[in-house]
Structures are given as C-alpha cells and as structure tokens.
Fold this sequence. Notes:
The protein is α+β, with helices and mostly antiparallel strands. The chain has helices at 34-43, 174-182, 203-211, 282-286, 301-328; strands at 2-4, 12-14, 52-55, 60-64, 68-76, 79-81, 84-86, 90-94, 99-102, 107-115, 149-150, 168-170, 187-194, 214-216, 224-228, 243-244, 249-251, 259-261, 268-269, 273-277, 293-298. It folds into two domains: 2-172 and 319-327, no CATH class; 186-298, Cyclophilin-like (Cyclophilin), CATH 2.40.100. Helix content is 19%, strand content 27%. The radius of gyration is 20 Å and the shape is globular. The protein starts with a strand and ends with a helix.
Amino acid sequence: MIEVMSNGALNLVVDKGREAAVPLGVSVGGAMDTLALGIANLMVGNAEDCAGIEVAIYPFKLKFEQDRLVAVTGAFTKALVGNKRLPPYWSQWVRAGEVLTIEPPQFGARSYVAVAGGIDTPQVLGSRSTDIRAGFGGVDGRGLKRGDKLAIGDAQVSARRKPQRAGGFGVAPRVITDYFASLSSNVIELRCVPAAEVELFQASALDIFTSTEYAIQPESNRMGYRLRGQSLELKAPVELLSYGVVPGTVQVPPSGQPIIQLADGNTCGGYPKIANVIESDLWRLAQARAGVCLRFKFLALDDAVAALSEQSRVMNQLKNSIELISVRV
C-alpha cells in the first residue's frame, strides 16, 4: 500500500484510458501524457499500460508502506525520496516508511508516478483511469486526497527489468529533453493534419492558423485547451450535426477562437473542425501550461503516420536500453 499525504483534485489514478468504450460515448480519459506514463512503467518493469498517478497539483507526497521500485517522469520537476533528490526521468527504490515528494516543475505541467506492480484500483470499462465527470474509476471517480490508501499489484516483473535494491537509473529520450528545453521560449510547434471541415474556412483563416500563435487560456483543463489568438473565419455560416471527435481535434466555435479536445473531451461535437493534432504530439500538449503559445503546422497524412512510427521506434529503443541498464545496476 501507499498513502497519499497531500490533497489534489486533479491528481488522478490513470492508465492509457478507455479507447474501446468511446463508441459508448465514454471519453478516452487516461493519462494526458501517455508517453511519460509508458516510460515510467517500463522503468519499474511494468507493462506500458499499467495504472500510475498523474500529478498536476503540487507539492504531491506519497508514503510507502513497503519497499517498492518507483519512477517519476513527465514534467521536469524536483522529486525527493526523503532528502535525496532524483533527476528527471529517474527510477529509485523507495523503502518502507519513506516519503516521495514531487515539487512544482520548472518546465512542463504534469508528472507521472509509476510503482512496480502498478496501482491496483478496480477496473471500470476495461480501465483503472479516473473519469471525474462521470464519477467512476480511480478512487471513487475523484481526485486523490490526503489519507487515501492505494493498493499496489504484485511486482512480478522480469529479473532483466528489475534493478537491484541498492540502485536506480534514469532514462530521458532526446526528443523529450529537447522539448522541455524549448519550453523556455514559451512557444511550441504542433504538427497536425487537416480535419473534415477545413475547406469551410476562408483561405485567410488557414494562413492565420499556421502563421500566428495561439495562447493557452487559464480556463483550459483535461477536457480541452481554449486558445486565444486571431479569429478563424468561415466562408459562410454553417450548421453541422454532431459527430465523432478524438483527442487532438481542433474545433472552432462561433467566437472564432480554437478549442483543442483532449483526454477527457467529448466524444462528439458539432463545431467546425479545422485540424487534428497528430497523436504523436499530444504528449507535448499535455506538458504545455496556460500562457504557452502554440504554432500549428500541417502535415500530409503519410508524414503523420511516419511520426507515429518514429515514436514507436524510440519506445522500442528505450525498452532495450532499460533492460541493459537494469542488468548492470
């Protein structure tokens, strides 16, 4: 068991979500940054889709009732086991009675904690993820609060993936370190593909969308990011029937200010859709705070598929690297 020692309405038990339940009208949910959660799980010997904890409100503290291998990934933050500081993307044995503390990040927005064996909350519709709007999953469908105790699954992991109890190790892919370094400019580029209604927008709107910046507004959340920038105008007023949307869909309501649907977003909507952020860039959005400016770049569909293949290649390299490091530690 581990005990939560700090309140945080947006600190949640998450895994990779409920994609299979989307046809039922259930949000995908799950981790906003699935790449960070997957890496954290690999570092402690879990399957990539094991449940962990998404931290968005800091400081966050966990007390361990048994020895367990733990990894902290996501935002570049100050993590401590007792008084020992952990570098970003680091795994470490935490002893029974010790406290893991995650301080506010220097760069990024969300941190992820994976524990060997995974967080063992009940599955709902095939996932342990918390759905706050629907009130199920995780711990009673809500954010974590002080005094919550979380069960941990059996840590039956390969010996090749399990460092000795004296050690720990870190793994931060170049693509991630480069991204967090770029956040100092307060502007990030997101790759996207044209969406269904792109031809309904004025040509000038498409130029504006790809050549100007849109700032993430404070009222943004896990459902979606509201953006502020130059208005995107349609060729003519239009009424659409609602139909499916996915995380990354960029919709434009009558205000002309874009909204990006995210993990807890609606499964259908009727606003015109100008673009879809590609799947392999959604983790970048997850780590962008309010005030960060976004620039959009259109890709051909083949290039979007290639970007996803490249991300899979990086993850496979990580798996192999972690196996080698684990054996040596």
